Amino acid sequence: MMNQKPIPVNTPLLGEREKELLNECIDTGWISSEGPFIAKFESEMSKYVGRNYGIAVSNGSAALDVCIKALEIGVGDEVIMPAFTIISPAQSVVSAGATPVLVESDLSSWNMDVSAIESKITSKTKAVLVVHIYGFPVDMDPVVDLCKKYNLYLIEDAAEMHGQTYKGKKCGSFGTISTFSFYPNKHITTGEGGMIMCDDEKIAERCRKLRNLAFEPGRRFVHNEIGWNYRMTNLQAALGLAQLERIDQHIARKKEIGLRYHSHLSNIKGFEVQPTQLEYAENIFWIYGLLAETQELNEAMQKYLSSNQIGTRPFFWCMHEQPVFQNMGLFKNERYPNAEKLARNGFYVPSGLGITNDEIDTVCEVIVSFKLS
Ligand SMILES: *Cc1c(COP(=O)(O)O)cnc(C)c1O
User: Fold this and answer.
1) Which of 93, 141, 183, 184 has the most beta carbons within 10 angstroms of its beta carbon?
2) How far apart are CA 237 and CA 331, in angstroms?
3) Which residues are CB-neighbours of 314 under 8 A, at least 6 positions away?
4) Is the residue at 7 inside a domain?
5) Which residue, judged by its Cα, is nearest atom 14 of ligand 1?
């Protein structure tokens, strides 16, 4: 229809300060995980979230691997988590030899339906792993209560929630362990990167050990257990520090992007969108998503946008429908209709921090011009 420049699904926003700090790495020769920016980034980020400890790692999925192992979750244990999520948390649980136990989604928040958690708790349950999805946090009060009542760990995947709050309290501050990602589509980026957060010194120590090949304090190169090389580099931390200086601006801009889309798209026929506000949180619009009435409509709209040079992403695919897990014999005959609806019918439009208002308006015009043939 229109002949405009391609609009990718995500463009990060990088500035002069990033160049300055990256140049400092090059000028000083500190480019590995031994450089000074890592500890600084850990302390600034944990201060921002309100936690005692931050442990920087190579990405958000790595953060989840470390977190599961640090809590000694393994064979015979169950971890309750949403059916609708990115695979990372489920992959960490399965890799540790434990079993993910899935929970249905709530179609008003697109997050896990917390009223469905309690019936999934068994004597094997070790933790509830919440994943805050797209713009809103999970309804945390009932989850915190359940974890206390049943003496379970609370793990919080806050990869999409930098700066988001639940009833005024920062996301990432609820979990026994919480994790963040700094992938380029998150509110602040280090290219690839992640961070683990906790308040317990022993857990923090364990996470530091696991990210670093489980080196022992005694004789170097003698190991008592298996870890990973999940270290973050000084180059990544340089980006992270520069980005963190502007985090509040980034979040404000993300909200502006979301509200601009919302003003054009909240009444599009055949599509639902997330509300801008729930009783416990404002939408921070990690992405701007559209949920079609049918899978056909979703696919046709994404194809139409692509033919107009506009990038889109389908929503996550449900854990119980992942071929890799089905082939392992997991989640046999389980159904989660709300989660399946999100996975089949949802997609999101270009929502990165680098997008301009003109580009947002172009995306909206193209969407409005769509006619199902
Ligand atoms: C991005 C993301 C991850 C994975 O982070 P990576 O840094 O890409 O490994 C995990 N969980 C959620 C909810 C995410 O959005």
Assistant:
1) 93
2) 39
3) 298, 302, 343, 346, 347
4) no
5) 159
The torsion angle over the Cα atoms of residues 183, 188, 190 and 194, rounded to 10 degrees, is -60
Q: Which of 244, 275, 304 is the last residue of a domain?
A: 244
Ligand 1, atom 12, lies closest to the CA of 159
The atom number, within ligand 1, closest to the CA of 286 reads: 15
Q: What integer is the mean pLDDT of 58-85?
A: 98
Q: How far is the CA of 197 from the centre of ligand 1 (A)?
A: 15
Closest by Cα among 204, 257, 186, 276 to 57 = 204
Distance 113 CA to ligand 1 centre (A): 20
Same domain? 214 vs 294: no
Structural domain count, the chain: 2
Ligand 1 pocket, Cβ-based, cut-off 6 angstroms: 59-61, 86, 88, 131, 157, 159-160, 181, 183, 194
Which residue's alpha carbon is nearest to atom 5 within ligand 1?
60
| Ligand 1 atom having least distance to the Cα of 182 | 7
Q: How far is residue 93's CA from residue 78's CA, in Å, rounded to a whole number?
A: 9
Co-location of 161 and 200 in the same domain = yes
Q: Examine residue 172 and state whether it is found in any structural domain, yes or no.
A: yes
- Structure confidence by residue, pLDDT tens digits, 169-227: 999 999 999 999 999 999 999 999 999 999 999 999 999 999 999 999 889 999 999 99
How does pLDDT run across 294-337, given as a tens digit for each residue? Answer: 999 999 999 999 999 999 999 999 999 999 999 999 999 999 99
Question: For the chain, where are the E strands, in sequence order?
Answer: 53-57, 78-82, 99-103, 125-131, 153-157, 165-166, 169-170, 177-181, 194-198, 271-272, 288-292, 313-314, 346-349
The boundaries of the domain holding residue 208 are 16-244
C-alpha of residue 255 to centroid of ligand 1, in Å = 20
Question: Residues, the chain, total?
Answer: 373
Q: What is the CATH number of the domain that holds 286?
A: 3.90.1150.10
